[in-house]
Specification:
Layout lengths: L8 E4 L8 H9 L5 E2 L3 E2 H5 L3 H5 L10 E6 L3 H10 L9 E6 L4 H4 L11 H14 L3 E6 L10 H10 L4 E5 L13 H10 L4 E4 L5 H11 L3 E4 L8 H12 L7 H15 L5 H16 L5 H8 L5 H13 L4
Parallel strand pairs: 1-9, 2-4, 3-4, 4-5, 5-6, 6-7, 7-8, 8-9
InterPro entries: Aldolase_TIM, DUS-like_FMN-bd, DUS_fam, DusB-like, tRNA-dHydroUridine_Synthase_C
Keywords: Flavoprotein, FMN, NADP, Nucleotide-binding, Oxidoreductase, RNA-binding, tRNA processing, tRNA-binding
Enzyme class: oxidoreductase
Length: about 325
């Protein structure tokens, strides 16, 4: 069984508000083969929005971070890639998002809403290919809803237009993140394409990784919610592939890694921003630990990094293992 798991790529998904430089670096340390920036709007880049430009930052310490873009206008996509993205030497790949189901993205005809317009998808894929020599992938879903399942068509368009590989989140746009990902569709996509297929959706454990590869024969997996507060999952999967065994982190190891992320984030962001942005990460890290809700509520009221560090050290002293 472990033989078929070898050489499968384990990637960190481009998660808005999550996969910043700090978390990407940590994921790499634990074994992520590839990471991606948070979704970057080509429209905002076109108009030189500073906050959006900042999302393109890749640290010199990152080994394999790549850019993910979203948009819907081929002419804007081409100009942005040629004028800005091609010059980012650290990024060897461009991922294009056709899978985000969030309303503020889809209402503009972007993200997963693009799947309702296969002709535009084809035009975008052709534009991507002619605009860059970088490796390309597109990330998409099963379709708009259960009555409009067209991922096989989108996958074939990607393949025929020169996209290097595809990533399938096995839910529809309307499902958002509810219900279960239907991995059987990933299997069908893999059977119908010659380019690599990466599985995405409901991979929260080593066992999920084993099962999705066994069922779909996908070329790798992309961890999304399963990695939030749990970068350890990358190491657990890699350990299992190598040895057939893995171990979960102890409560103290979890807090130590949380503290390390705070320190790492401070290298790239101002203290006030780190304190507020890390609140969601803390909640994910400590979920299920003893007195976690009490600590979460307490830390959420703190305003300085020193206060947060003191509280986490105190909390750690109450934990076992």
């Amino acid at each position: 069984m472990r033989e078929q798991l070898k050489n499968k790529q384990i990637m960190l998904a481009p998660l808005a508000g999550v996969s910043d430089v700090g978390f990407r670096l940590i994921s790499e340390r634990y074994g992520a083969d590839k990471t991606f920036t948070e979704m970057v709007s080509v429209n905002a880049l076109y108009y030189d929005n500073k906050k959006t430009n900042d999302l393109l930052f890749i640290s010199e310490n990152e080994k394999n971070c790549n850019i993910q873009l979203f948009g819907s206008k081929p002419e804007v996509i081409e100009k942005v890639i040629k004028d800005k993205i091609n010059y980012i030497e650290k990024s060897k790949e461009i991922s294009f998002n056709m899978g985000c189901p969030v309303a503020k993205i889809t209402k503009n005809g972007e993200g997963s809403q693009l799947m309702a317009n296969p002709k535009l998808v084809e035009e975008i894929c052709k534009t991507l290919r002619k605009s860059t020599d970088k490796k390309l992938n597109i990330k998409f879903r099963l379709g708009i809803d259960d009555k409009h399942i067209n991922y096989l068509d989108i996958g074939k368009i990607a393949q025929d237009t020169g996209i290097d590989y595809v990533i399938l989140h096995a839910r529809t746009k309307d499902q958002m993140y509810s219900g279960n990902a239907n991995w059987d569709h990933i299997r069908k996509l893999k059977e119908n394409l010659q380019i690599p297929v990466i599985a995405n959706g409901d991979i929260f454990s080593v066992e999920d990784f084993i099962n999705v590869i066994d069922l779909t024969k996908a070329d790798g997996v992309m961890l999304a919610r399963g990695a939030m507060g749990n970068p350890f999952l990358f190491k657990e999967i890699k350990d299992y592939i190598k040895t057939g065994k893995y171990s979960k982190p102890s409560p103290i190891e979890i807090i130590d890694q949380l503290i390390d992320q705070y320190k790492l984030e401070l290298k790239y962001k101002e203290e006030k921003l780190v304190v507020t942005q890390m609140r969601k990460h803390l909640s994910w890290y400590i979920k299920g630990l003893e007195n976690s809700s009490k600590i979460r509520d307490l830390v959420n009221k703190l305003k300085t990094i020193d206060e947060v560090m003191d509280e986490l050290e105190n909390y750690k002293s109450t934990l076992k293992g």
